[in-house]
Amino acid sequence: MAASRPGDVTSSAVAGHPLAPVPYVVRAVATETPDTTTLTLEPRATKRIPRSRPGQFNMLYVFAVGEAAISISGGNPDGQLIHTVRTTGKVTSALTRLTPGDTVGVRGPYGHGWPVADSKGRDLVIVAGGLGLPPLRPALYEVFRNRESYGRVEIIDGARSPKDLVFYDEVQGWRRRTDLRVQVTVDAAGKDWYGDVGVVTTRIPDARFEPERTTAFICGPEIMMKLTAQALVARKVSPDAIWISMERNMKCAIGFCGHCQYGPSFVCRDGPVMRYSTLEPLLNLKEV
Amino acid sequence: MTSEEGRKTIDAVAGHPFFHGFDRAFIAAICSKAVEHTFVVEDMLAVEGTTAELLYVVLEGKVALEIGAADRPRLTVQTVGPGEVLGWSWLVPPHHWRFDARALKATRAIALDGNVLRHTLSTHPTWGFQFMVRFMPVLAERLENTRIQLLDIHGR
Asked: Nearest-CA neighbor of A127 among A207, A193, A196?
């Protein structure tokens, strides 16, 4: 595997003050789940942030409320951005209350993303837990665009319950493709769910890949990523070939303030996507 | 069951991943009262609280394992599919199902008789040990998965 990594953006790409947001207008709002919303943003004027790479994040600023780091779940070359936000606090709650026409500040993109290009020629196992799918979505579409460059592609999408599955219709569309395999599972379900039930790790033994030539991208809650990585290692996938996306409380996003420090790393600058082999000792600690 | 049907049942069980590598004489012994069943969607393979004298060897389909209480909707906690086995209550007294098992899609399974299993395992300790060495990891894995569910790994 090549040592280079995508997304070497460690300072604001916006001209001028590194913390100055660029105004974007909310073009569309889609409700994913009762507490999760997908926002489609477009530049309010000619000024826009640079194009992102899969796995990077932006800082979204709700004026008079505050700023939060939100992973990028899509976009287009014309500057459109897609962000999926779950209500967890004051800022994310304000973000999910935005309506078309509202203005939001955006700065970014920041951080290291998924090593999509470096994984060409290899089997891919992509595991999403809960709201882990949106940060993986741009990587998936890049793989789809260059499908012939990869070996087997196995997608495992897990959530707490059926109502917590995001981008559900889109995932159902992926399931109809013959050039990849998609497993969807939930931790528990009611009688109206006819899909798989069981924690996401239960799908790893059934996943189809050749361990020695497999790269894995995992995104979800930390405990889910740790257990999934362990299940992949049990199937002989190298810890160096497993990438996980860390989440911490980010403030400056440019490796300056230290709010997102995780062991010797700043997640905003050194992550959010990092090698499991690097993080494994930290993930096993009760407190970092 | 005709001898031809019996041979087919033994072949099907011997070809199931759970029984891979077992002595064919052992397979034949535990299949002496085996019955192949087909279930349509919503058919019940097991009903909580009723007598459990079967070990299902799932060949095709998908089965939901459900638990519940009087004051809340039933909850599916696991699904079982081809290559897996379903049911441990035949081994553990008082041999009552501890959950409902409901077909989520058309399902084909061979039901091994619990009395035959217990008799075969106890009278042939070598086979019995081999079987338990294969069966315990299934139970351990399901226990571990239940613990992971308790961790609520998708919680926030």
From this structure: A207
Measure CB to CB from residue A198 to each of B73, B79, B155 and give the nearest one: B79
DSSP states of B68-106: EETTEEEEEEEEE-TT-EE--TTTSTT-B-SSEEEESS-
pLDDT in tens, B135-156: 999 999 888 888 888 877 776 5
Best CATH choice for the domain A117-245 from the list 3.40.50.720, 3.40.718.10, 3.40.50.80, 3.40.50.1000: 3.40.50.80
Let me know if residue B156 belongs to a domain: no
The total domain count for chain B is: 1
Query: Looking at this predicted complex, what is its ipTM?
Result: 0.82
Sequence-ordered list of residues with C-beta below 8 angstroms from that of A270, at least 6 positions apart, any chain? A112, A255
CATH code of the region A22-110? 2.40.30.10
Q: Is residue B66, in this structure, part of any structural domain at all? A: yes
Instruction: Please indicate, yes or no, if residue B48 is contained in any of the structural domains.
Output: yes
Contact B156 A223 (CB under 8 A): no
In terms of Cα–Cα distance, which of A2, A44, A39, A51 is closest to A25? A44
Answer whether residue B31 is part of any domain. yes
Q: In CATH, what number is assigned to the domain containing residue B69?
A: 2.60.120.10
Across the interface, whether the CB atoms of A221 and B77 are under 8 A apart is answered no
Q: Domain residue spans in chain A?
A: 22-110, 117-245
Give B117's contacts (C-beta < 8 A, 6+ positions apart). B30, B55, B90, B91
Q: Which residues fall within 8 angstroms of residue A75, CB to CB, at 6 or more apart?
A: A51, A52, A81, A82, A138
Give the mean model confidence (pLDDT) for residues A193-211.
93
pTM of the model: 0.87
A159, A197, A220 member nearest B77 (Cβ): A197
Whether residues B153 and A188 touch (CB distance < 8 A) is answered with no
A190–B77 CB contact, under 8 Å: no
